Prior knowledge:
The protein is mainly alpha-helical. Helix content is 50%, strand content 8%. Helix 5 (78-89) packs across helix 7 (106-119).
Amino acid sequence: MSTHHADATRMLDTRGYTGPTIHSTNPLHLLEKPVRDRITESYYWKEQCFALNAATLCDKAAALTYIGGTYGQQKPTPFLCLVFKLLQLLPEKEIILLYLRQQEFKYLTALAAFYVRLTFDGREVYRVLEPLLGDFRKLRRRTREGGWRLSWVDGFVDDLLVKDRVCATGLRKLPSRTVLEDLGQLEMRISPLGEEIEDIDADEEERGDERSRGSDEDEVEEVNGNGRVDDEQRSDRSH
């Protein structure tokens, strides 16, 4: 069994790196150097990430209480430290998908989603992450200023799909979904809100018809200057 050094020195050594690569680069270099340096210097990395493997990292992720990148004086969050550890461990894809799809620990899901965005190819990113756009579990997010913001799993995943920077990390540009559809690599996405939108449109159309009928009924003849003709007056005029 290989040993995983907490300081990641061996993998960060740029002198003739020959280990596994992701997107043709050292996996740890998917995070920018200033962020890497702050992670490896942090207390959480040194004390909590030592000798973690895929199983014990799962326990650490289950204990997370917020997501985020760096905050305050560029201090890395435990979330970002565990992302870095995943890049060091490079678990099998099946393990990442297991992290992603379990329903008990929402921060483990968020961690796996971030790892997917960093390491999977564009087509897989869409196919794996888009189902989470229907996941409305709440997340706490640490802001760069050190404050807190309420987020949701679906909003976090949407950020991963459309933004080029999330959690103090620059993200590789995704190929356009439309292009992948045209190439036959992805099926056209049907929004989970599609039926609800159709129901809303139908309700609006029905209310519009009712307003139209009401307007027709309000059109009355000018009689005796009061502009209305009641049923009795109509009956008298018909004789």
